[in-house]
Design a protein that fits this description.
Blueprint lengths: L15 H6 L31 E3 L9 H13 L2 E5 L5 H16 L2 H5 L10 E3 L14 E8 L16 H26 L6 H5 L6 E9 L11 E4 L5 E5 L7 E5 L2 E4 L7 E5 L1 H6 L9 E3 L7 E9 L5 E2 L17 E2 H11 L5 H5 L6
Parallel strand pairs: 1-2
Antiparallel strand pairs: 2-10, 3-4, 4-5, 5-12, 6-11, 7-10, 7-12, 8-9, 8-11, 13-14
Helix pairs in contact: 3-5
Bound molecules: N-oxalylglycine and nickel (II) ion.
The site of nickel (II) ion has 3 residues, from loops.
Length: 358
């Protein structure tokens, strides 16, 4: 049984940005990954394969049959896709990314006011998981809650740089809107009523939280990762990557595909709860982030999750004699304790939820 407490971090927190700026030429052993986990020599994009890119035609919702079909294929075959012309204001997207970049460049004393703890994770953090002696990832982050409304406390959002809170609020409204449209499409594509997924996730009490990721320059990028391999524990993720610096890699079979970011696009991916709800028609896919010595990288991941206390289980419509329920019901509160304790661990958790073979 895991017994690590979630009351405090097991070791003093080291900010990766300050390590990066200290001028070290070798990274501390705490960040050195075991050989099989290290990025193999990275030499540009894999031009033969990339995650699907879907043009949503500039509308917010009401998408054509053809677009629904492309989204269905992408969910089924990749679990990851990029969307362009998605209706979210590209100006706000850029401002938001640059605002967060500024935040991470603030003096450490200022950011320290927002230091997070492993119980809620809300605030400024530099590790995932509480296992003493764990190998750490080369990144800092900021985690905040937006939905359900009672979980939202803008006083826990950065007050600097100026207008940061206002921008987070504006960006959130738009990204939540896009997510609601996508959840309708996924419901329809699965043959469910269009509000099925949203309702299963708690309707107006569905969860939404933002993690701003900061990947500082790294003197030995071949030895470490910005974020270790994981699948997202929640329902759906809408990621705003750094337009200029690639880093996200998606697993396809036994290979890692480096995603080539498209200007003003979002990257959408399926999380573990969607895998459970769809009875594995759609699967969450492992991904990770590589770092580099020349450029820092900023990304904003918006996670859409079930309300914490509802049981999530395969939709009855998707359970048949031929396709029995693959997963046991579990609440998201219970589910995410695992990643909060262990940190990123590939897909080991959703696999552990498999119901025993009958
Ligand atoms: C995440 C994530 C990818 C990235 O925050 O869960 O996978 O590109 N981020 O930062
Ligand atoms: Ni992720």
């Amino acid at each position: 049984m895991m017994s690590n407490s979630l009351d405090y971090w097991p070791e003093p927190i080291v900010r990766v940005r300050s390590l990066s700026e200290s001028g070290i030429t070798r990274i501390p052993s705490r960040y050195v990954k075991p050989l099989p986990d290290r990025p193999t020599s990275f030499s540009g994009f894999d031009t033969k394969s990339n995650i699907p890119v879907i043009d949503l035609g500039g509308e917010s919702g009401g998408w054509s049959e053809a677009i629904l079909g492309r989204i269905n294929e992408a969910c089924r075959d990749w679990g990851f896709f990029q969307v362009v012309n998605h209706g979210v204001d590209p100006g706000i997207m850029r401002e938001m990314r640059e605002k967060w970049r500024e935040f991470f460049h603030l003096p450490e004393e200022l950011k320290a006011e927002y230091s997070n703890n492993p119980c809620t994770y809300e605030g400024y953090g530099s590790r995932l998981g509480v296992e003493k002696g764990a190998v750490l990832d080369w990144s800092d982050y900021y985690f905040l809650h937006y939905l359900p409304p009672f979980s939202r406390d803008p006083m826990k959002w950065p007050s600097q740089p100026s207008l940061c809170r206002e921008l987070i609020a504006e960006y959130s409204v738009q990204v939540v809107g896009l997510c609601c449209e996508l959840m309708k499409v996924l419901s329809i594509n699965l043959g469910l009523p269009e509000d099925y997924i949203q309702e299963a996730f708690g309707g107006g009490d569905m969860g939404a939280c933002l993690r701003a990721n900061f990947y500082p320059k790294c003197p030995q990028p071949d030895l470490t990762l910005g974020l270790s391999s994981h699948s997202d524990p929640g329902g759906l993720t809408i990621l705003l990557p750094d337009e200029n610096v690639p880093g996200l890699q998606v697993r396809k079979g036994d290979r890692w595909i480096t995603v080539k970011p498209i200007p003003d696009a979002f990257i959408v991916n399926i999380g573990d709860q969607m895998q459970v709800l769809s009875n594995a028609r759609y699967k969450s896919v492992e991904h990770r982030v590589i770092v580099n010595s020349g450029k820092e990288r900023v990304s904003l991941a918006y996670f859409f999750n079930p309300r914490g206390d509802i049981l999530i289980k395969p939709a009855e419509e998707l359970v048949t004699e031929d396709q029995p329920a693959l997963y046991l019901p579990m609440t998201f509160n219970e589910y995410r304790l695992y990643i909060r304790r262990k940190g990123p661990c590939g897909k080991s958790q959703v696999e552990a939820l498999k119901s025993p073979r009958r």
